[in-house]
Design brief:
The protein has no helices and 23 strands. The chain is an all-beta fold.
Length: 256
């Protein structure tokens, strides 16, 4: 793995494989406001013994991935692809196959004041043994995910995302999901929010253009979000005219 501290690294047209980290960051560990840019890079078989199967980012590091393909990656704890603590993460046209976290955040894990800006993510076969099949965001993490094509997400809670804390803000636009795995009984809850906002009407979360096809026959019903002590929609704004959930088991589309 590459270890960076207050460093600048650009990787272009590189193939990286069979990387291991005895601690965190299977391919790159970046701290001290490091800056990393990766373009047209292929990463395969990356593993971290703790967090960040591919990338571990901290201390205001700034990382941009463009046209990157990642496959067969894992973290024994959190953040299968990216673990971010107070870092800025930009993903552009990133393709992911077979990622997993032994803890939470199969693809993304954000804590502190992390910021995620994701555009055109294609993620397939992503799982977390804990919460957040795609993402686990906590503390004051903010994220924007646009035009994402996702398939086969699974987690013990929140196969799409698990949000922990009142200051987490997520915006989703044009998200397509197929092949969901249901592990929390007959009701599929795509997004779990552990600590709902005290004033749900003040939520800055939003979802627009979410299309979900459920293919797991054990899931007879679905709901978009479940917040502790709140109703299904309490912590999110949903543009229903552009969103739908189609349940193959029941053969019908279900309202958000």
């Amino acid at each position: 793995a590459i270890w960076l501290n207050a460093a600048v690294v650009d990787l272009v047209w590189v193939n990286v494989s069979h990387t291991r980290a005895a601690f965190a960051g299977g391919t790159i560990y970046a701290a001290g406001a490091s800056r990393v840019q990766m373009e047209d890079v292929n990463i395969g078989d990356s593993f971290a013994l703790t967090d960040g199967g591919v990338l571990y980012l901290s201390a205001s590091s700034d990382v941009t991935l463009t046209g990157v393909t990642v496959s067969s990656y894992s973290a024994r704890r959190n953040g299968g692809l990216v673990y971010s603590s107070n870092a800025l993460v930009k993903l552009r046209n990133v393709t992911s196959y077979a990622g997993q976290a032994g803890g939470s955040g199969g693809l993304l894990y954000g804590t502190g004041t992390s910021q995620f800006d994701v555009l055109k993510l294609s993620g397939h076969a992503t799982s977390a043994s804990g919460a957040g099949g795609l993402a686990y965001f906590e503390a004051a993490t903010s994220a924007r995910l646009d035009f994402c094509d996702l398939s086969t997400l699974s987690a013990s809670a929140g196969p799409l995302a698990y949000l922990r804390g009142e200051d987490v803000v997520v915006q989703w636009t044009s998200i397509s999901i197929t092949g969901l795995q249901c592990s929390d009984g007959p009701v599929m809850t795509l997004i779990e929010r552990e600590h709902p906002l005290l004033d749900p009407g003040a939520s800055r979360d939003s979802i627009r253009g979410l299309t979900v096809t459920m293919k797991n026959s054990s899931c007879e019903h679905s709901q978009l979000i479940r917040a502790e002590g709140s109703s299904t929609r309490a912590c999110t704004g949903v543009d229903g005219s552009h969103s739908s959930i189609y349940n193959v088991f029941t053969g019908r589309s279900e309202p958000m």
